[in-house]
Amino acid sequence: MDPPSRFEDPRAATNGDNSHVSKKLKLSFINESQIREEFAHHQPGIARINNGSFGSCPASIIAAQKSWQLRFLRQPDDFFFNHLQRQITHSRTIIKDLINADHVDEVSIVDNATTAAAIVLQNVGWAFAEGRFQKGDAVVMLHCAFQAVKKSIEAYVTRAGGSVIVVHLPFPVNSDEEIVAEFRKGLARGRANGKKVRLAIIDHITSMPSVVIPARELVKICREEGVESVFVDAAHAIGSVHVDVKEIGADFYVSNLHKWFFCPPSVAFLYCRKSPASPDLHHPVVSHEYGNGLAIESSWIGTRDYSSQLVIPEVLEFINRFEGGLEGIRKRNHDKVVEMAQMLAKAWVTNLGTPPEMCPSMAMVGLPSKLEVLCDDDALNLRSHLRDHFGVEVPIHCQVPRDGEIGAMDGDGCVTGYARISHQVYNTLDDYIRLRDAITQLVQDGVTCKILRRK
């Protein structure tokens, strides 16, 4: 692997009177050829514009992961007793600095955002079961929360007597203010009849449809309205938007590291703000570290492969091979995904589902209404058809306006289907042209989702 940055040796230049002038040191960043080498393991012939679902791990990080795996397998006892905990702590320290946490004890490494949600919601469920929360007190969440979060609420909260308030966000959406207004209504419903909102779950970036949520502002509103604690589910955040946990101000904040941070699957961090009222959180898998604090509990949940947690230092080295490091990658991905989304919308005579400033490294692009995406099954069938017949991997979202809502329109009718495109460093213009031309061909051939249902 190339070092994170290389410097040209300074050369002395001699002028006419033999005085020496040194040249400035010049950084050497990763080039396009090296980027292609890092992702040469991707299946050829596929326009892979769905980084948001599973991310993508570079070849040098895959090699580093294999090295860690072999170190364990060569001498497991030595690795367990003398290296594992120290290396995990090193990874946690890197994360602490990246997200601006106060202390490494506030950072736990877990498998993914699903595990983090279980940790937080398990604690809420205990509070209801033990009588610390009153039956009917509420958890407030957004309607587009991850399905795993909804299932964790079902498993831990509602069965223990808690109620759930679902905030329906508008889409397409034009401004943060529209989201704030709906969120305030949800909190008001949670406080109705003298009840309390015990937890608010806020996405930093919703998955489908993809929208950057004004998390800091919503957390501030929660504080003003007396919400007991706030959990920001930021599965897509780190590497896609700027993350500063102190600025956001939530009690809990989780982000996957395998989506936009180049780690192998699966690894995430869970930030838990330290305060006198901090709850006693525990990992849902109980092992011999139980009772030693969540970060230590999470660092050993039995014999398993911890290599995805151990490569975080190498991942940061990879990221720093790019000009501007993580923030440079993030900005370039955002700018490029907006550019590609606007190109597609122009070709299809549709619009983006959000303003550019509400796009992370993903964007929602309206599909021609002639495709007739009318339900989730239609969206899945169209996605599969694009993969199988055009070599395009892109998620499709169905958004049929509810009663009283006005949806986006193209020249032929109401836009009910949206492509969620991603941009990561390995993507090229050709990926988006392939999607553009595939959709255009389907429309020209008169293909609709109704026809695809019959296939």
UniProtKB/TrEMBL annotation:
Segments for region (Disordered): 1-20
Keyword Isomerase in record: yes
Biased composition (Basic and acidic residues): 1-11
Enzyme Commission number, as recorded: 5.1.1.17
Keywords for this protein: Isomerase, Pyridoxal phosphate
Residues annotated as domain Aminotransferase class V: 84-277
Enzyme class: isomerase
Transmembrane as UniProt keyword: no
InterPro entries, per the entry: Aminotrans_V_dom (IPR000192), PyrdxlP-dep_Trfase (IPR015424), PyrdxlP-dep_Trfase_major (IPR015421)
An MF annotation (GO) of this entry: isopenicillin-N epimerase activity
Entry protein name: Cysteine desulfurase NFS1
